[in-house]
């Protein structure tokens, strides 16, 4: 794809927003390219995904303001719907996703990062939802995901004030899982992705489904959802091999995704 590249390292897929001359800003074509990459991911040979931005300045600096500035209400609604559908596709991918935030993650960039399961960032990363300073609201899930990740009060402060936060505060409030140097960001995230990929892939996918499906339900319903995904693992070869290896005090050489 022109503005989004995809490469594989073993069982790990790497999605890169590749528009560095515009700080990887999102326009319709970038979103179309991202959707095409997401739609092409194979669960047969991919067990974790990393999402990052090209260059060392920006993960995604936001949506393309020049492209948005003259939109009508209907065009803005369609743009918001399109972006939300793609970010939901990423969020609902059955395999774990990790954002490697290597600089600015503002507006749509922060919303893209929040659509991933896990976020790590470099020390120069900056996060924010600056939309009210432009006369609009967040449009790709920012008002919803930020609240769920860092709590209502802090999310409202960031969104209402359009205040950006740096990497250390993002870690403190729980927006990111860890902070690395620029040089160590991708190696750190790749190490985590490969560790995830080494585990039984059906079990990992079932864990993601259980968390996603159960999160907004009451506890009685949520644990019944977990029971379903737990029991389904017992029809897999990977479960039998994993428990056999444990009882035989040896490591599993490789899980086979079946």
UniProtKB/TrEMBL annotation:
UniProt record, GO biological process: fatty acid beta-oxidation
Pfam families cross-referenced by the UniProt entry: ECH_1
EC numbers on record: 4.2.1.150
Organism ancestry: Bacteria, Bacillati, Bacillota, Clostridia, Lachnospirales
Subunit structure: Homotetramer.
Pathway terms, separated by semicolons: Lipid metabolism; butanoate metabolism
Keyword field: Lyase
Catalysed reaction, written as an equation: a short-chain (3S)-3-hydroxyacyl-CoA = a short-chain (2E)-enoyl-CoA + H2O
Keyword check for 4Fe-4S: no
GO molecular function: 3-hydroxyacyl-CoA dehydratase activity
Similarity comment: Belongs to the enoyl-CoA hydratase/isomerase family.
Protein name: short-chain-enoyl-CoA hydratase
InterPro entries reported for this sequence: ClpP/crotonase-like_dom_sf, Enoyl-CoA_hyd/isom_CS, Enoyl-CoA_hydra/iso, Enoyl-CoA_hydra_C
């Amino acid at each position: 794809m022109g503005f989004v590249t995809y490469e594989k390292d073993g069982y790990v897929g790497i999605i890169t927003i590749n528009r560095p001359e515009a700080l990887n800003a999102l326009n319709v074509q970038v979103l179309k390219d991202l959707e095409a990459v997401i739609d092409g991911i194979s669960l047969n040979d991919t067990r974790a995904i990393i999402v990052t931005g090209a260059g060392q300045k920006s993960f995604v600096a936001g949506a393309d303001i020049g492209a948005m500035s003259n939109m009508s209400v209907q065009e803005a609604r369609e743009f918001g719907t399109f972006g939300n559908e793609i970010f939901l596709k990423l969020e609902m991918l059955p395999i774990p996703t990790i954002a490697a935030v290597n600089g600015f993650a503002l507006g749509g960039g922060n919303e893209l990062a929040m659509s991933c399961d896990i976020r790590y960032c470099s020390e120069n990363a900056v996060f924010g939802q600056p939309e009210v300073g432009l006369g609009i609201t967040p449009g790709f899930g920012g008002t919803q995901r930020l609240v769920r990740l860092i709590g209502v009060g802090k999310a409202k402060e960031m969104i209402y004030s359009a205040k950006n936060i740096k990497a250390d505060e993002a870690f403190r409030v729980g927006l990111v899982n860890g902070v690395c140097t620029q040089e160590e960001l991708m190696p750190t995230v790749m190490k985590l992705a490969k560790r995830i990929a080494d585990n039984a892939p059906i079990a990992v996918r079932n864990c993601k489904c259980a968390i996603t499906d159960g999160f907004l339900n009451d506890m009685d319903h949520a644990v019944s959802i977990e029971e379903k995904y737990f029991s389904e693992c017992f029809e897999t070869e990977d479960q039998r091999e994993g428990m056999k290896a444990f009882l035989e005090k040896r490591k599993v050489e490789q899980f086979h995704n079946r």
